[in-house]
Design brief:
Chain lengths: ~250, ~250
Amino acid sequence: MHFTAETSSNGVVERDFTVGEVPGVLWSPASGSGRAPLVLMAHSGGQHKRAPGILARAHRFVTGCGFHVAAIDAPGHGDRPRTAADEQHIAVLQQAQAAAEPIGPIIAGLHTYLAERAVPEWQATLDAVQELPAIGAEGPVGFWGIMQGTGIGVPLTAVEPRISAAVFGCLGHESLTEAAAQITVPIEFLLQWDDELVDRRSGLALFDAFASKEKTLHANAGGHGEVPRFEVDSATRFFARHLDRVGASSA
Amino acid sequence: MHFTAETSSNGVVERDFTVGEVPGVLWSPASGSGRAPLVLMAHSGGQHKRAPGILARAHRFVTGCGFHVAAIDAPGHGDRPRTAADEQHIAVLQQAQAAAEPIGPIIAGLHTYLAERAVPEWQATLDAVQELPAIGAEGPVGFWGIMQGTGIGVPLTAVEPRISAAVFGCLGHESLTEAAAQITVPIEFLLQWDDELVDRRSGLALFDAFASKEKTLHANAGGHGEVPRFEVDSATRFFARHLDRVGASSA
């Protein structure tokens, strides 16, 4: 793990890093004392590790809970080069969009394709970040990712026992059912009731598939991109309840 | 409106009252200054105005938000006598339960029967409570009621323009669809994903029926009686967001 840059503002230290060829960002409390839990954040399709929705939530998790937050660019996203195969997948998606064809199966195939590389990349990132003294290998780890972040995060969480709580959502496809059925950690699942891209029933079916005894669906009126702002607070409290062994009641 | 008793503990003043023949309780901040919003709370079937689930939430709304909270006994419940017709409805329900027949339609019929009396009783209670200087006729009013509280609260909220936000849930029946479609205020709707009494699809259909632009479904794993404790916090924040024009961000 190599740190390449460091800045600090509003109580949050932001450090760019690379693990192998994968670039990431680690946000940490400026005045941290002792070890603190870690939240992994996976961005949406076409986005990157420092997308506004990632950045805003990362700052909340750091300042609201004292957690560390790590994000990396997905394969072919952000600062990473696209392979010929990446370009081919994107071209297929763009052709379907241009032809107004159903893109659900294409999106699902793209996520499966990305997750094959992204899951081991996340595991290597977690290995590296947990070597930092302020985080450590024993601390609790959460995962946050909606849309493509769920397409990668569900298969990741299914095989990664270090993740002990996860926020997913705004996605649903039968290609994820098998992995979801292997997940038993607490889940908060977002669903947009009037989502123009994700079929409501497929989102409900994915929520249903998680084997978790504690799982909560938050379905909000509105379209795909209209997740309400108060869900940021809700995710903050969800992680505080499940990751913070001390201060959960104050969050 | 007649006050019949007053006690005070942990920062909450509790006053028993009657409006006509309907007995109720009003919980208020002990150190209130100026006017504060009001939350109406309707108990579940077979329960009463001071049931543990009502009492705990009422105290949270008072101490957490500085709100006033009013609860009344539903017809034939709590301190109120049962009429012969009440007894007849209960006998029909008990016979169906004993015979292990589907009770959904019977419950829906019972709620319709109760709401005919309970809706005007709630409106008379609201008239009376709003005459108190600490509440007033101009302040925001919320409604909280799940199960039978939803069976009464949905028709009440449909016809009562003073209610500006409501928490419903753990119920679903097509008999409520028409009233739900008249409701446009923000809604938080609870649903138990593994509810043994309420069909999941009927709960989702009732949530779908609300005309509200801002509505959120909170579906939690677990049976009818297993609404998680953290939903008390969520309802508190929901009312803080929608009723408290000043201090919402601190809740």
